[in-house]
TrEMBL record:
This is PhnB-like domain-containing protein. SUPFAM superfamilies: Glyoxalase/Bleomycin resistance protein/Dihydroxybiphenyl dioxygenase. Residues 4-122 form the PhnB-like domain. It comes from Kutzneria albida DSM 43870. CDD domains: PhnB_like. InterPro entries: 3_dmu_93_MTrfase, Glyas_Bleomycin-R_OHBP_Dase, PhnB-like. Pfam families: 3-dmu-9_3-mt.
Length: 127
């Protein structure tokens, strides 16, 4: 099997909600595999967004750390409407780090932590 590198997201009880939310946001998204524990939390899941595979779990051990914006998911959007739609959905219940705007390096850009704490950068390329 060839070496692969896959983003891995660790939640504490929100993995199913995050998985459902993320795969509902992107048109080319799917749950590839999902294994649950007897208490119905996610033991291990693989999902795909725009061809990129991710893994996620619900940790059954509490951790004193969470997600950080020092690593984020960068989405190159195809239209201003897509940037606006994704930003609004991801910002709901989350935190805006950089509001939607023109920062010179992108036609429209925004950075947000979603309600699960995962950080997203949304960019519309310059024409």
């Amino acid at each position: 099997m060839p070496q692969t590198i896959t983003p891995f997201l660790m939640f504490e009880g929100d993995a199913q909600a995050a998985l459902t939310f993320y795969t509902g946001l992107f048109p080319d998204a799917e749950v590839v595999s999902l294994t649950r524990r007897p208490d119905d939390t996610v033991l291990h899941a693989v999902f795909s967004l725009a061809g990129q595979r991710f893994m996620c779990i619900d940790s059954d051990v509490h951790h004193e750390f969470g997600f950080t914006p020092s690593i984020s998911l960068f989405v190159q959007c195809e239209s201003e409407q897509e940037v606006d739609r994704l930003f609004a959905a991801l910002a709901e219940g989350g935190q805006e780090l950089m509001p939607l705007g023109d920062y010179g390096f992108s036609a429209k850009f925004g950075w947000v932590n979603d309600r699960f704490g995962v950080s997203w950068q949304l960019s519309l390329p310059l024409a």
